[in-house]
From TrEMBL:
Keywords: Disulfide bond, Glycoprotein, Signal. Residues 42-158 form the Bulb-type lectin domain. Residues 1-26 form the signal peptide. SMART domains: B_lectin. It comes from Fagus sylvatica. This is Bulb-type lectin domain-containing protein. Transmembrane segments: none annotated. It comes from the Eukaryota.
Amino acid sequence: MATNVVHLLKLVFLLFFSCLWTRHAAEWIYVTPAQAYNSSVGDTLKPGDTLNSSSFLVSAKGTFALGFFRRIDSTSNESYVGISDMADPSMAFNLYVWFGNRGRPLVNHSGMLTLDNNGTLKIVRQGEDPMVIYTSPTKNIVGTLLDTGNFVLKELGL
């Protein structure tokens, strides 16, 4: 009898979390691991590098991707900078674990994530002021997407 109750509780939890997953999955356009790998510019953004709406940073082991994504339910062409979990290449979609500009979407896929030669990480938008994310006190920094899902800025040794 107790075993049946445990199985019933597991089923209820499974159904509950499946509903949450489905709602989340329906909101975003997903990039398959193959799309991210084919459009990858590596795992590191160096001074002067730019990441546009059709390119991605993919972590060294291919576990995470950083790039521009858009919502399925949006009637406009708004996009967001985000990091997605790419751990299971057999999945048809990925989970987004972080968004950098949730409250300020980019219009018409015009955004570019850039690390300029002055050490400033920013999102450049067509016809608008750049969204500065970080300004380094030194110019010699790089941004690397780690296999933990963290995008880390670090100063290079001289």
